[in-house]
Write a structure and sequence with these properties.
With about 300 residues, the chain is α+β, with helices and mostly antiparallel strands. The chain contains eight helices and 14 strands. It is about 25% helix and about 25% strand. Helix 2 packs parallel to helix 4. The protein is globular and about 85 Å long.
Length: about 300
């Protein structure tokens, strides 16, 4: 019996690179971070910070002052793979059996596009959570491939914690405290991120406080400008259940490392003659790091 996989190849082969990118950088958080490509396993972030000192210009002479400091931080990326099998005959005698084309000379993947898009959606959700809650010591296979930002930030003594006399009673109060603690050097570029659960509570508290006149224009993207400021707040799925608020220059100070330049990533969907089934294989590397922890504010609500 001949196997015709033309329909399968037309979809996956022509979109392989876009599909890889959707799998690797498709999460909301990944799109907000500074993308560092060419990361195979571990990679250094080469950092430069400069502090100048004003001298007395009314006198002669050359008096050197000021410092340029070179430093490094490391992205420790983990290798991630997704392997799945799909037997079209499992659909026989179900509502979807009309999509299973079993005839002489044919073997095609039913619902191929829907199947692939479903895999990507699930992969993005797991990656989104891993970017924040990843922990290489975890027993959770979805979270132990690399350390996430919460673990990285918790280990840094220089991360800023809001100075509070009493614990905030509401999410709105906590967000305001985090905003007030953002260093002025990064205030123009900083954003605040919370879980989608906290974001919904925050929006409801704004409405209850009659702050809806600021027209936050909340939509499915779960983002708005904090009333009275120019700082945006995002609701991210990766922070759900953590009760954590983080403020940082996401695009400038938070780095997401992956390859995208070599052969570390792949997205293959094929029909296995040996196993008489369709198989999916996705491979990529991922890791996160913060360049300057002393410019990040983090607060965990009790």
């Amino acid at each position: 019996m001949a196997i015709d996989v033309n329909a399968l190849g037309a979809y996956v082969d022509e979109q392989r690179l876009p599909l890889i990118k959707k799998a690797v950088i498709g999460s909301k958080s990944a799109s907000l971070f500074n993308l560092q490509t060419g990361v195979k396993n571990k990679a250094k972030l080469n950092l430069l910070s400069t502090a100048v000192t004003f001298g007395d210009g009314s006198t002669c002479g050359f008096n050197a002052a000021g410092t340029s400091t070179l430093s490094q931080r490391e992205i420790a990326a983990g290798n991630v793979k997704i392997n799945m099998t799909f037997c079209d005959k499992d659909l026989l005698s179900t509502w979807a059996d009309h999509e299973v084309k079993v005839a002489a000379g044919t073997a095609t993947m039913p619902f191929e596009q829907d199947f692939v898009e479903g895999v990507l959606k699930s992969a993005n959700a797991k990656l989104e959570k891993g970017l924040w809650q990843g922990d290489t010591t975890s027993l959770n296979a979805d979270l132990n491939k690399f350390d996430g930002l919460l673990k990285i930030l918790a280990a840094e003594a220089s991360v800023i914690e809001p100075a509070l006399s009493t614990a905030p009673a509401t999410v709105k109060e906590a967000v305001n405290a985090v905003y007030a603690a953002i260093p002025v050097e990064v205030l123009e570029t900083a954003s605040i991120v919370v879980g989608q659960d906290m974001f919904r509570t925050y929006v409801m508290e704004l409405a209850a406080a009659n702050l809806y006149q600021y027209k936050p224009e909340v939509d499915g993207q779960m983002e708005l400008v904090i009333p009275g400021t120019s700082t945006k707040i995002y609701g991210l799925g990766g922070l759900n259940g953590t009760n954590t608020i983080v403020a940082a220059d996401l695009a400038g100070n938070v780095f997401y490392g992956t390859d995208l330049e070599g052969d570390q990533e792949k997205f293959d969907l094929w029909y296995s003659k040996d196993n008489q089934e369709f198989r999916l294989a996705i491979n990529f590397v991922a890791g996160v790091q913060v360049a300057f922890p002393d410019q990040v504010v983090m607060y965990v609500m009790a």
